[in-house]
Design brief:
- This is 3'(2'),5'-bisphosphate nucleotidase.
- Helix 5 packs across helix 7.
- A hairpin with a 5-residue loop joins strand 1 and strand 2.
- The protein contains 14 helices and 14 strands.
- By secondary structure, it is α+β, with helices and mostly antiparallel strands.
- The protein has 2 domains: 222 residues, Fructose-1,6-Bisphosphatase, Chain A, domain 1 (2-Layer Sandwich), CATH 3.30.540.10; 127 residues, D-Maltodextrin-Binding Protein, domain 2 (3-Layer(aba) Sandwich), CATH 3.40.190.
- The relative contact order is 0.11.
- The strands form 3 sheets. Strands 3-4-5-6-7-8-9 form a 7-stranded mixed β-sheet, with helices on both faces.
- It binds 3'-phosphate-adenosine-5'-phosphate sulfate and magnesium ion.
- Magnesium ion binds next to strand 4.
Length: 424
């Protein structure tokens, strides 16, 4: 009898084991596959597929702990560098064609086919990789939609601008698919900006006047996170590749993009700034850049706008003289000024307001600010107030811009305030 019950008990256990085994066969595969796919997602978040890792030879920090921490914006940096690099192929072809088709916008600033084409290409790259991100771009497609001749000119340029490295070209989505897609890309730059989320600030050709007169110009792109410029990229086809090349007086006037010219600056907040030669394919190797330590401020070289209407040459000169600076200013258009001081070719950037009402545009400064900060500099407005990029398309709470190496910044801003205060 006992053995009968023992047998039965054993059978029950065996049956139960069978049921458990069967159930786990049914449930395990989906559970396992979910876990595996989660692991894959996690891995791709921490280690995104990235040509940059091979090509940049780790331009930023190299310690393993920081490696994981910094990955968050490495993909954004790579996309921004490639997008700007591709857009410079287009701007360079327009620069050489001398058919710089200018339009007149309502604010009378010159707009070129290069501006529209570069904006289309860059926004299409951003949207390919980060479809949810917003973009504050300088241009819109209103003129392109109205003017068929202009549209076909820009479309031809956009189609011709290709990176000659297929992996790099694929990374940013390849060619724009249609004229409508091109128009939509340009118009995707209409974000109102703001303090929340991921917003890119894009100036497809900064320094349009320099571009038209054969001086310096720059293709500028920055990613702002919750209103703070976090990734910055500037392409300057007409600056010398050599970070040490002194700034000569001609740099803002008789420029070209011959051999030995063309620089791509990049920076991620907290991770340093780099420069590398522009290329027509994948990214070239980058090296870290730093502002020049200034032991004696009277030896400083200061940069300012070419256009007297954009920055007060008189006030800039008064500040320089109070600082004991005797070297003449270096005038050049565009955010090439930020890049030049970030790599120690120049030292200070003074942009004293001319007009009481002009509001600086975020796309004229966001990329340059990250690059200078990451190279060891400080940037504020002319009153020493932090630049507020989170209040829309303009820096409406700021007046002017001052950038200098951290060590001398307090002295520079003191003198700037003296000069501004004397005019109040
Ligand atoms: N009144 C006034 N004050 C300050 N800034 C102004 C003003 N008017 C225009 N702009 C903006 O200046 C941008 C180019 O300035 P830069 O210093 O980069 O170059 S320049 O030498 O002044 O041309 C220029 O950028 P781009 O239009 O991309 O060239 C303008 O956005
Ligand atoms: Mg501009």
């Amino acid at each position: 009898m006992t053995s009968f019950f023992t047998q039965l008990h054993k059978k029950k256990i065996t049956l139960l084991s069978l049921i458990i085994l069967a159930t786990s066969f049914i449930l395990a595969p989906p559970f396992l596959s979910r876990s595996v796919s989660r692991l894959v997602q996690l891995k791709s978040h921490l280690y995104p597929s990235s040509a940059i890792q091979q090509k940049l030879r780790r331009p930023f920090n190299t310690t393993p702990n920081r490696y994981i921490a910094r990955m968050a914006y490495e993909n954004e940096l790579e996309v921004a560098l490639l997008a700007v690099q591709r857009a410079t192929l287009l701007t360079k072809s327009v620069f050489h064609s001398h058919s710089k088709g200018t339009l007149t916008k309502s604010d009378n600033s010159p707009v070129t086919i290069g501006d529209l084409g570069a904006q289309a290409l860059i926004i299409s790259s951003i949207k390919h990789v980060f479809p949810e991100d917003e973009v504050v771009g300088e241009e819109d497609a209103d003129d392109l939609r109205k003017d068929e001749a202009l549209r076909s000119l820009v479309w031809d340029l956009v189609q011709a601008a290709k990176l000659d490295d297929s992996a790099a070209e694929d990374k940013i989505g390849g060619p724009i698919k249609s004229v409508d897609a091109m128009l939509d890309s340009v118009d995707s730059g209409r974000s109102a900006g703001g303090r929340k989320g991921r917003i890119w600030a894009l100036d497809p050709i900064d320094g349009t006047k320099g571009f038209l007169r054969g001086g310096q110009y720059a293709v500028c792109l920055a990613l702002m996170i919750d209103g703070v410029p976090t990734v910055g990229v500037i392409g300057t086809p007409n600056l010398p590749v050599d970070d040490k090349a002194p700034l000569d007086a001609d740099i803002g006037a008789n420029a070209d993009d011959s051999d030995g010219k063309g620089v791509l600056f990049g920076a991620v907040k907290g991770e340093g700034a780099t420069s590398r030669p522009l290329s027509s394919g994948g990214l070239k190797e980058g090296s870290k850049i730093f502002m020049k330590p200034l032991n004696d401020i009277s030896q400083a070289t200061f940069c300012e706008s070419v256009e007297a209407g954009h920055s007060s040459h008189g006030d800039n000169a008064a500040i320089a003289s109070k600082l004991g600076i005797t070297k003449p200013s270096v005038r050049m258009d565009s955010q090439a000024k930020y890049g030049s001081i970030a790599r120690g070719a120049g030292d200070l950037y003074l942009r004293l307001p001319v007009s009481k009402t002009y509001q600086e545009k975020i796309w004229d400064h966001a990329a340059g600010v990250v690059i200078v900060q990451e190279a060891g500099g400080e940037v504020t407005d002319a009153w020493g107030k932090p630049l507020d990029f989170g209040i829309g398309r303009t820096l409406k709470d700021n007046k002017g811009v001052v950038a200098a190496p951290k060590g001398v910044f307090p002295r520079v801003i003191e003198v700037v305030k003296e000069v501004l205060g004397a005019k109040e």
